[in-house]
Write a structure and sequence with these properties.
By secondary structure, this protein is mainly α. It has two domains: 44 residues; 159 residues, no CATH class. It contains eleven helices and no strands. The chain is elongated and about 65 Å long.
Amino acid sequence: MKFNKEFKDAILGLSQNEKDKLLLRLLKKDKVLSRELYFQLIDTDSVDDHQLEMEKYIKEKVTYFATKRYSPSYLIKRLRSVSNDISTHVKVTKDKLGDSYLTLLLLTEVLEQFNTKLVKSTPGQARKLCIYYLTKTFKILIEITTLHEDYHLEHRNNLERLGELFLQNEHLMRTAKQNGFDVDWLLTTEIPEHIESIYKEIKSAGYLSMKTYLSTPDYKVT
């Protein structure tokens, strides 16, 4: 909903007491906004402190997932849940590298725990999870290219680690080849400057989708 000038002026014209009551009502309904304001106004922990907490949280969550009965669809649900938590962290703390760094950590931790099980899945069972992984990894690489070079080293170890885990998984490697993802981008940590254009071209060609299945030819990056 867009607020026109008349509505904004009406809000600003309210008494301070009325504004305070409205603000408290909004904060009760918007938990993310509440956390954001708490972080800005009261919290004594830094962005780095919160990032370390999220790292610990991710590792604990993945360890917990590993105690449950495995299936690729179950894993996607859990990945999406933790990804939402990462997005909330970034929104609350304005963590500049949190989204790419923490999502990369999540992907690597999950493969460390589940790679052996995923390899034993049929290509059809593994397909959706592999597409999810490639899409997420593309977005991580795109985001890294927008960061200052000083931040790139923060990702190096986990990029290489993720690339090695890809190599150990025939489903991921097959799906990567079919959808134009070069695993060397991870292993060498040399990300093309035009990675976003590559991603958009692949998507516009109909790849990185469940509709593009194993019978399609391999996509070649130009």
